Structures are given as structure tokens and as C-alpha cells.
Amino acid sequence: MPRLVDHAERRSSIIETTWQVIADRGIENASMRDIARECGYAAPGILAHYFPNKTALLLASYELICQRTNERIAESTVGKRGLTALRSLCMEIIPAEDLTTVEAKVAVSFWQRAQSDEALRRVGRDALSHWHAEIMGCLAEAQTDTPTGRPADPDLFTDELLNTMMGLHITAMLDPYAMSGSRQRRLIETMLRRVCVSDAS
Amino acid sequence: MPRLVDHAERRSSIIETTWQVIADRGIENASMRDIARECGYAAPGILAHYFPNKTALLLASYELICQRTNERIAESTVGKRGLTALRSLCMEIIPAEDLTTVEAKVAVSFWQRAQSDEALRRVGRDALSHWHAEIMGCLAEAQTDTPTGRPADPDLFTDELLNTMMGLHITAMLDPYAMSGSRQRRLIETMLRRVCVSDAS
């Protein structure tokens, strides 16, 4: 079915162009016509065939980013478990590298729209739940491997880690010098070290 | 100078209406004409006299929120110091109550635009720096009062606390049931307790 394959590929290609538009100038500064032009379509109608409006395009952009992030997490944690796997997971989510910085910009644009759109909120919530379960899994492995290697309250630790990673999407964007990639990694390392020493709190 | 007072009051009143519009339906779903109507102005020109465009209005809305938050922090920390003051500070920032939830929505809308506007980013950065300094001050007081009452690396702890609080703006919006007000308070309490027991990490 060559036409279906072509449709999916073209869809991905539009989304990747959209990521760049969001990263360069913000989605609110680009019309569907502008994005169509960036994609190389003379008529914006072609874009509308794939995505009826900006919200649909932003939703698809965010979904593909979550999917790609999860694929990278799966790749980078192959053969790893416990805290080693958890460290790799965090590195694919925090905006400490060029790729994850672009992804973070799309996420922030998406979150802004999710505020007034329940369907978008659900997608954002699903991504958080998925990561929450993965982090809890890593913490359970850490405990199996080292009986003290797990925080007193894994669920609370997971929330703290997730909130810190989401917060980095904001602080690294507002202040990329203070919240540099190395600073972000150090913050995550410090949090993970608390698991190793068995947080008594 | 009655005219000046009137100008400032009307400006605040426009901003407060804008907060409500952002909280109810998102700023991207409201035109300047819509906001003017919500303010009770028949002609959108009156609004433009105060704010030339949505970005200017959003900037002013965010600035007033930071100012009000800081006023509340000043009030709620009167006569307090150290961790007691720090706890009060956090409670005015996290979106655990109705008022701070509305403020968080304005902040998320603001952050989205700040991504492609250096002037907005600077304002966001200033708010973070201000809170960072206040938190460091509380931690220094905690150490003076109890020599062990301070984390090994106060600067890193401050970043962790700030990132968690910014992250809560996102997670509580996406999943208000999982990240309820009481859950948010518990998260902050757990972090502050680590200071009391002198975080060994």
C-alpha cells in the first residue's frame, strides 16, 4: 500500500518542519499558511488535508515527540536496569541537549494550549503516567538489586523527579546559562544519589 | 493627580479581567476585541490605549502576578525565618489553591510566548532569580538557627525546589486529581524535611 506509507511519511515530515517552526519563532507567530510554505507546499490546502488546524498539528507534534522520546528511552536502556536505566531515562527527557531542547519548546507550546483543551490535557497526562510507571519500575529494580536502594516513598520520589524534569523545561528555556545542560545533569545525579544512600526522610 | 491614579487602577482592572480570560479559555482563544468586551469597553481602541497588543498585555499580567505573589510572600513571612518562612514562600508559589491555580495558568501562557521573545524571557528570569535569592536567604537563616539545618549544597537544593515548583505548574494543570493541592503540599514538605535532617548527599 504505497499511498498509505506515503501519507504517514509526509505526515511525519510536516511534523518535523513544525518542530523547527516552533523552536525558531513560536507556533503563535506562524500561520498554517506559513507552515505550509516551510513544508514546501505552494497551497496551504495540502497541509489542511493532513491537519485541519494548528491545535491538531500541535497535538500530533507532541504525540510524535513523546513517541520518539520513548523509543530513545527504550534504546538507551537496553541491557540496563535500576538506577542505571533510570539515569538514561531522565537524560532523554530533560532539555540538556539540542534535540531535547527543541522537544521541550514543543512541549511548552503544547502545554499552553492544553490548558483550555481537555483532549490535549489527556495526552499530556498519559505521557506523565507512562513515565511515572517507568520510573517506579526502575526504583523497584533498584530495590531488588540493593535492598536499601530505594527511597522511603518511591511514589513521592517519582513525583519529585517528574516535577523537576518538567520544571527544567521552563527554567532552562528562561535561563539557559544558569540552567545549562551540565547543571541539569548534576541536579538529576544528586536526586538519584539520594536513592542509592536510601533516603531516610 | 487623579488622572494618573485612574490610569493605574484601570490598568490593574484590565489585567485582572485578562487573568480570568486566560484561566477560562486560554489567551489564544481571545482576541483583543474579546478582552475589551470582557472589560466592558464597547470599542477595542480603549484597550489598545493601555496595551498595544496581546504580548504587552500578557507581559503586564505576568508582572502583576509576580508582584502580587511577592507581596503575599512578604505578608505571609512577617515574623518568620528559616524553614518556616521558606514553607510560607513555597505555598504562595505552587498552584495548590484557587488563586495560585489561576496565576499558574497565566504563567504557562506567558512562558509559551517567552520562548520566542527575549524581553519576556528576561522578566521570567528575573522572577526566578528573585525567588532563588529569597530561598537561599531562608536556608542561610535555617543554618544560623540550627547548624545542621541546611542542605550540603544550598544552591543545588534551591534549584531542585524551584524546578519542582515550576513543574507543578504543568503537572497540576495536566492532572489536577493526581497532583492535588494536598499532594503538592506533601511534596514540598518532604523536600523541606530533608533540610531539617541535614541532607547528607
List keywords for this structure.
homodimer; 201 residues; 9 helices
Account of the 3D structure:
2 copies of one chain form a homodimer. Chain A is mainly alpha-helical and 201 residues long. Chain A has one domain: Tetracycline Repressor, domain 2. Chain A has 9 helices and no strands. Chain A has helices at residues 2-25, 32-38, 44-50, 54-76, 82-93, 98-114, 118-145, 154-174, 181-196. In chain A, α1 (2-25) crosses α6 and α6 (98-114) crosses α7. The mean pLDDT of chain A is 90. At the A-B interface, α1, α6, α7, α8 and α9 of A face α1, α6, α7, α8 and α9 of B. Chains A, B: Pfam families: TetR_C_6, TetR_N. Chains A, B: Residues 85-196 form the BetI-type transcriptional repressor C-terminal domain. Chains A, B: GO terms for molecular function: DNA-binding transcription factor activity; transcription cis-regulatory region binding.
What secondary-structure arrangement, pairings included, does this model have?
The structure is a homodimer of 201-residue chains.
Chain A: H1 2-25, H2 32-38, H3 44-50, H4 54-76, H5 82-93, H6 98-114, H7 118-145, H8 154-174, H9 181-196
Helix content of chain A: over 70%
What's the story with the biggest beta sheet of chain A?
Answer: none
- CATH T-level topology of chain A: Tetracycline Repressor, domain 2
- Please count the beta strands of chain A (DSSP E, at least 2 residues each): 0
Going by helix content, strand content and strand pairing, the class of chain A is: mainly alpha
Shape of chain A: elongated
Assembly form of the protein: homodimer
Q: For the residues shown, what is the average pLDDT of chain A? A: 90
Radius of gyration of chain A: 19 Å
* Biggest chain pair interface: A-B, 50 and 51 residues
How do the helices and strands follow one another from N- to C-terminus of chain A?
A: HHHHHHHHH
The CATH homologous superfamily name of chain A equals: Tetracycline Repressor, domain 2
Strand composition percent of chain A: under 5%
Any low-confidence stretches of chain A, pLDDT <50, length ≥5? none
Number of domains of chain A: 1
What is the annotated CATH architecture of chain A?
Orthogonal Bundle
CATH class group of chain A: Mainly Alpha
* Distinct helical segment count of chain A: 9
End-to-end separation of chain A in angstroms reads: 58 Å
